Every structure is written in C-alpha cells, then in structure tokens.
Amino acid sequence: MLSRPVLVAFFALCFVAVAGCDKAPPVSQATPWSPADHERLPGEDDGPVERAPSGGAVVELVWAQRCVGCHAANGQGNGSAPVPNFSADAWQKSRSNAELAASIAKGRGAMPKFDLPASVVDALVAKVRSFAEPSP
Fold this sequence. Notes:
Elements: H1 4-19, H2 56-71, H3 89-94, H4 97-106, H5 118-130
Helix pairs in contact: 2-5, 4-5
C-alpha cells in the first residue's frame, strides 16, 4: 500500500493537471489561422475538400454545360440549331445588353430560359460580347 504522503502528492498533482485544462494557451503560443486549417475534416486524409468554382470559372462552367451545345465554344454556332453567330458585327450591334440578359433569363425562340443569378447572367452577356470581332 502507498504511504499517505505519496497519495497526497499524487492527488495534488492530478488536481493541478485537471485545473489547468480549461485555460487557453497563451497568445504567444497560438498559431495563426489559415484557410488550409479547414481543407480537411478531422481524420480525413484524401486531400482537400473540393470547392465550388467562383467568378469567371462559374461562367465558363455554365457556358460549357448549357450554351456550347448550340452556340459552340467559339460562339459561332455548331449547326445543330438556328443560332446567331456571336462574332458577327451586325448581330452584336442589333442587341442591347438588356435584351441579351432577357433572352438568357427568359428564353427566346427555341432557346430555353435559364434560372441563373443576375450576376451570372450579366457575366454571360459579357462572354457573348467577347466574341465580337474587332472592327477593321
């Protein structure tokens, strides 16, 4: 059996250890937060969490998934549907940005409507305008 002084010392040591558990480490020992701290869930080791595309990547994704099928990657149409050639100067001059946005959001002719945030619609209008060939 352990002597009384040894038991008292043991319990005192346990009390000190437990009492200090609720204290945060000093600021000098804290590490700065970084986005990489949240790349993985605890115990996960299969790489960073896939993030949703943002900014221009969203527009390119929408263009690739919803527009290229008829308008082609270059905006000149792929022949599968009667679509305008976005690089044609006459066509570019015949539509306002508001008309293009309305066509994307509400549909026009054979083109279906697309329920997209206004920021994405505006970015798609800018993409359509980017196909314009420079005037000579």
